[in-house]
Amino acid sequence: MKKTLFSMVSLTLLISCNQSKEESQNKPTTPEIVQEDFPYGNVPREKPDRKLSAAFERIYDGTYGGLEVTSNELFSNFKYTPLEGFDYHGHDGTVSRRDASKVIKVDDTYYFWYTHRETSVPPDENGGNDTIPSRDWDLSEIWYATSKDGFTWKEQGVAVTRTEKPNPGWRSVSTPDILVYKGKYYLYYQAYLNMPGAPGTKGDDCPVAASVADSPNGPWTPSNKIVLDNGPEGSWDQYVIHDPYPLVRDGKIYIYYKGEMGGNPKVRAQGLAISENPFGPFKKHPLNPVINSGHETALFPFKEGLAALVSRHGLEHNTIQYAPDGVNFEVAAITGLMPIAPGPYVPDAFTNTNDGRGISWGLCHFRNVGKAEGKSHSYFARFDCDLSLDVDDPLMKESDILNHPDIYFQFGLTDEQRKRINQAK
Question: What whole-number distance in Å separates Cα of residue 295 and Cα of residue 341?
């Protein structure tokens, strides 16, 4: 009986194995990819007639501006130089300069405008009042400076001062940018109606106001009205319209701006508003926000479209992006150590060009200097790059950057992180 049972089990297993073998032989198989190896040397200029990985498909069919960094006109690293000509009162926190506008050139002189704070004490985030600033940009005015070479600057003094209450900008005016349009000069800026961080606000609520002058040296006449307002309740920009950045395109004034969408951590994005008049009305683009990342706005004409420096915050931070239509931006390059609050020199910013030439330098700031000692302030530097069709600087295209170890160590573990790691042992 046991032998018969064993024989039946063996026969069943044999039949099952034969059936599995036959099914395996009849089952269609995925053909093995047989092709020549990817060639040695530079990436081929033309897309190879072969199957490619996703990584190499996007080199040819994606939005990068070149097949490698050296051939990508929209890739650059950035080099920094301290500016000469500014006094920061011993860096005690009572004097701050930040938020450089675009640089313009009038005759043989460069101009830029910026947030200037000079207070008796440094900012106090929890103790701001009528004389003590709550933020680095609180109780500020807009000043300007000039230069012959872009490295050494002469401060010329105030351009736009705070207005009378209740006009926009009575509390503070900051973060300016410049438009040259039909023979006149326009400054756009954040115009605070409340102390930044005041109770009942979302921290930094403000609309955009503007002033006009016949000369870059002023005098400036304020509009005394909101030029670009916050969005309606529930919209992404209902509280924050920051960093107004005007360009001329398609015969119209394009103002790009940063909105703060809330969330934790806060989500920043960038929108676009368009008008045929410098004082508006401005119509916000229906696809807003048009850039999904970035803490500051900085754009420039490039070929037929616009390029954008997208630094700090968001899924696509540390990228340089491009949109042929100025609206639908795609990543053109990934880089690092991007300038904070860049104000580039953009010679064709207001020419309505369809052949943008790009940028090679500008100004930026370093922020929160001295904050740990209660002396928080910001100061200016110059950045240089090769994002220009008229410059060929291979050193700016170098991607093998080795920073000093101190740069890495300053981003070391916090006490809480070290404690967590030790407890997990």
Answer: 8
How many C-beta atoms surround the C-beta of residue 32 within 10 A?
5
Residue pLDDT, tens place only, 2-51:
444 444 444 444 445 455 555 555 555 655 666 788 889 889 999 999 99
> Among 353, 295, 292, 350, which Cα is nearest to 321's?
292
Task: Classify each residue of 177-208 as buried b or exposed e, where b means 16 or more C-beta atoms within 10 Å of its C-beta.
Answer: bbbbeeeebbbbbbbbbbbbbeeeeeebbbbb
The token duo for 34 is 């047989």
Residue pair 175/116 in contact (Cβ under 8 Å)? The answer is no
- Single pTM value for the model: 0.89
Reported as type and span, the H/E element at residue 344 is: strand 343-344
Angle, vertex CA 294, rays to CA 353 and CA 132, nearest 5: 110
* Token code pair at residue 265: 């951590």
Q: For residue 301, how many other CB atoms are within 10 A of its CB?
A: 26
**Nearest of 251, 77, 256 to residue 175 by alpha carbon:** 256
